[in-house]
Design brief:
This protein has six helices and 13 strands. The chain is of the alpha+beta class.
Length: about 240
């Protein structure tokens, strides 16, 4: 648990981590991560000015280690909560989801990536080389195009497109950050009517219980028709004010 304390500037940190979960969607190692330190909490599937500074560092390390310029660099989605003292800032890049639940419910999310994946699945391309080439083209587009959405990467021509909302701790009950695998509770499986109900269940039963609901649903042969992967990695963190 994070305890209320001061950060390097002496500002009081109000954020507390109530619960978290991160599991793999199959036999391979989990590529989704959850973490927290001081005034930050995050989920990563695979910001603000911090995102660009980290991207520069990633690019520098790629160059230093001789990462081939013709290879697709690694990329990820990030959901970030920054405690600002009296308030906080949520930043999303890629298909992470951030939810503020309190006097009202606010959701920072996108259907951009889900819609694009569903269209690719419906195309029913059977040549594996063509499937991979199309996937790389989509990824390159979201790294470099400056479209309405992007993913995080150290690509030399990257154009990061983070989305942000700010709010006060007053009137905020809980914050949920999650990767797209966890968001399937609402986006794919409709196990809950909305995000407020997800947060309520997370408070009562824990986010690990919700992860089990996801895995049970994934085992149904009837689900997953518009996805390349039936079971996805999951990461989520539930935050409350101290």
């Amino acid at each position: 648990m994070l305890q209320e304390s001061g950060d390097a500037t002496g500002r009081m940190i109000k954020m507390k981590i109530r619960d978290s979960v991160a599991t793999a969607g199959g036999a391979r190692s989990n590529e989704d991560r959850v973490g927290h330190a001081g005034s930050l909490a995050w989920v990563i599937d695979g910001a603000t000015d911090l995102l660009e500074r980290i991207a520069v560092e990633v690019q520098w390390r790629q160059d230093a280690y001789g990462f081939p310029s013709d290879r697709m660099p690694p990329a990820c989605s990030i959901g970030l909560c920054v405690d600002r003292g009296h308030g906080f800032e949520l930043t999303r890049i890629g298909d992470a989801t951030a939810v503020i639940d309190g006097d009202t419910t606010r959701v920072l999310a996108t259907s951009y990536f889900d819609g694009r994946e569903a269209a690719a699945v419906r195309a029913r391309e059977t040549d594996p080389a063509m499937v991979v080439a199309a996937m790389q083209q989509r990824r390159r587009h979201t790294m470099t195009s400056g479209d309405v959405e992007s993913v995080f990467s150290g690509h030399p021509q990257r154009r990061l497109v983070p989305h942000r909302i700010t709010a006060d701790w007053a009137g905020t009950g809980h914050i949920l950050l999650c990767t797209d695998g966890f968001a399937r509770l609402v986006t794919d499986y409709q196990l809950f009517a909305g995000w407020s109900e997800v947060v309520a269940e997370a408070r009562e039963r824990g986010v690990a219980y919700l992860e089990k609901l996801i895995r049970q649903t994934e085992s149904d042969p009837a689900v997953g028709g518009d996805r390349f992967k039936r079971a996805d990695d999951v990461a989520a963190v539930l935050i409350c004010a101290g």
